[in-house]
Amino acid sequence: MNSGKKRNRMLCSGITTTLEKNS
To answer: What ranges does the record list as Polar residues composition bias (predicted)?
Structure first.
């Protein structure tokens, strides 16, 4: 479960970075 949370966090970070780059 801990590993899944870490993976989800990385995914969220990647999405946020992509959104900021697109803006």
So the answer is: 14-23
